[in-house]
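Lab notebook, bench 4. We co-purified these components, and the gel suggests they stay together. Before we commit to crystallization screens, I want a quick structural picture of the whole thing.
Request: model the full complex, all chains together.
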Amino acid sequence: MIAIVLLVVVALLAFWIIASYNRLVSMRNQVLNGWRQIDVQLKRRHDLIPNLVNSVRGAMDFERDTLTAVMDARAKALTATGPADAAQKEGQLTQALGRLIAVAESYPTLKSNENVRALMEELTGTENKVGFARQFYNDIATKYNTAQQVFPTNLFAAALGFKAAELFEVTDTAEREVPTVDLSRR
Amino acid sequence: MTAFVLFLLFIGAGFDTVYIGQAGGSVPVGSLLALGVGSASAFASYYGGDRAVLLATHAASLDELAPAASDADKLKLQQLRNVVDEMAIAAGIPPPRVYVVPDPDPNAFATGRGPGRSSIAVTRGLLDALDREELQGVVAHEMSHIRNLDVRLMTIVAALVGAAALLSEWARRGMMSGGGASSSSRRSGRDRDGGRGGAAALIFVVIWSIAILVAPLVVQALAMMVSRKREYLADASGAELTRNPLGLARALEKIESAVAPTASIDRGSAHLCITDPLGRRVNLREGFWSDLFASHPPMPARIAALKEMAFQGRTA
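Here is the predicted assembly.
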């Protein structure tokens, strides 16, 4: 009788471990996929930028510095190696693009130009896609990490070779700082 | 949902004991038959429903519209395409097909069978009325319907509603034509169980007869309850996708101010829309009756819930 009870308990335990293991594997794959999705979007952004800069160059000749900054940041981002480096250089590119969008929006003539507007929409879309791909990656990675760290899964997750996924963080300190807004009139 | 199934079980059990009790033995023939017919019609709509809805609303695919559009229009359509792609990325599902319904009333709906086989349609009025952030909020809401498998859920609910309506219809006809069937079954019940069991069976039959009469109303109310819950859920998980509850809140305010019914969307797909396309007054009011029969929660409550989310996000 006791043997049967023991057997049932052991069988249930084995089933539970198998189920947890499979769940963790499927989550790990989702995390990997989420990471690749960020790469896909970053690549899209790199491909889009030369077109964008060329088509607004005529209209925005007076903002040569802003355009150069974008091209430089893109060139740097293309040479990035490893996630940490990529995160920093992509962060700078994001900033440069943000400036470009802000500049374009402050010129009414540019805003009314149909071509520029279409490109701005494309750029906003791409920036959002990069952002949402990161957001999705971080969400799914957090779920994966939590699943590993909760009791009692934490007892064997590490032994089965599961590691905590790294979150995509803003590493550029300038990007993290809250922008200071000075409203006093001088 | 649980209440739903329990209610249906009760109706079905009563039907089978009263009408088919002696003939069918222990197999619940009536319930199974009703459930079968209900499911068949529901699953026909599950597999062909998306095409039927898109056809009925004269929705045009974005791929067809884009080449022929004017410059300003092209920009709007490209924006819609981008916003849908963004939200698909945020939700981690393949981008759905995108349609535009030629209707001046702002509304939007999702249809299909789940991630990878779904469509999102927005009306022309929605495109014209909303800015990018608001459009993103609405698309995120519809994307959540797809990701949460609400289309599948509402199909199952529709099957249950259909089964309950059938049972109720059959039972009422039975009551009108052959009271003998039910009295004989009551007699046989008394023979089998003796006095006390017979009394219990009689009470059961009385309660059940009342239940049968109100069944169509009750299942409708339960179905609407499920629908309203999924609307709140889609609002909340939509805000989770955009991290911007105020975008959707502002969109809902704009949609609400245009209360005219969306003529091209019929009752059958109402639960998939962002707002009730019929422009029914019940959806705007709070209170007992609207709580029972509205497919969508009251707009002010939805907007308030979203604003609350935004407020909490700021303090956190």
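The two ends of chain A are 89 Å apart (CA to CA). Worth comparing against the SEC data before the next meeting. Residues 46-131 of chain A form one domain.
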